[in-house]
Amino acid sequence: MNFCSMVAILGAPNAGKSTFVNYVTGQKVAIVCDKPNTTRNSIYGIACQEDYQIIFVDTPGLILSPDGLLQKTMSRIAWKSSKQADVCLIMIDCKKPDFAVTDLLVKECLQRQKPLLMVMNKMDLLPKDQILPLIGRYAELQDQIVGYFPVSCKTGKGIDVVMDQVKKLTPQGPWLFPKEEVTQVPWAFSMAEITREKVFNSVHQEIPYGTHVETEDFQWSAGSKKNLAIWQAIFVQKEGHRRLVLGHHGRRIKHIGSLARMDMEDFNQCPVYLTLFVKVDPAWSGKYNFE
After folding, report:
1. Whole-model pTM?
2. Distance CA 113, CA 126 (A)
3. Number of CB atoms found within 10 A of residue 26's CB
4. Residue 250 region, left (φ>0) first, then alpha (ψ -120 to 50), else beta?
């Protein structure tokens, strides 16, 4: 007898949604950065335990007043994921709670009559007497919310309790993915996301929000020794951004490539030869399929 459910992880930007997904799957399926709007697509983290397959959907952080096509598209993806899910999980950053976003998410999820879990992330950074007021904010909805779960997505503390509760809410049904799969995104997309994470973490101005990475080509070695060559394009919106990504004498792009290559080698378990190009395309966001 098998059980399967889809759980939408919702919340404000930087609440810890991607870190949660990576922890429950035991693999890095979603990139992590301290900059808002790192997650742009709905990315599945597929956790299989005994007879249960639970598909956690990492969604873009919700922005109440999205600005531009990119943010508007990401907000639409988040709402769409909440509609399709069997269970909604709202992630709250206990250190910097965004109550405007959380209040709206709670209201919408309850109106759709979805089982709702409130997960309080970074609880290890706060004393218990500061966590209780966060819970008290929704005291009048106590009967409609499944429960409150203090966790640390970084260390994994408390996540096992969340998993146990999700299992109780998971209906009987066939698995949607083979047991060995941990995400639904194509391999080439995963490689591009690795590089985009390194761009986000290496460039500390406004550039990352207008940056996109595509895996344009790749080739596995034909000989007995396994190795992999990958060619990727980093798209930016302005020529000035291109120069900043390249860095002085190309030092920054070399640093980005070195960091990305190490993660790719760990992911693919073989040597990787990575070639990066930086291209200017002011309209790339209008051409990119986010869903």
Report:
1. 0.84
2. 31
3. 10
4. left
Average pLDDT, the chain: 86
Please tell me whether residues 42 and 74 are part of one structural domain: yes
Of 113, 97, 170, 117, residue with least CA distance to 9? 117
Residues 6+ apart with CB under 8 A from 165: 117, 146, 147, 149
pLDDT digits (tens, 9 = 90+) for 3-22: 999 999 999 888 889 899 99
Residue 288: per-residue pLDDT: 58
Note every long-range contact of 63-67, with CB atoms under 8 Å and residues 24 or more positions apart, other chains counting: 63/13, 63/36, 63/37, 63/101, 64/100, 64/101, 64/104
Give the SS3 label for residue 290.
coil
One domain for residues 128 and 52: yes
Q: Which domain holds residue 258?
A: 187-287
Q: What is the pLDDT of residue 174?
A: 94
With 0-12 CB in 10 A as exposed, 13-18 as middle and 19+ as buried, what is 20? Answer: buried
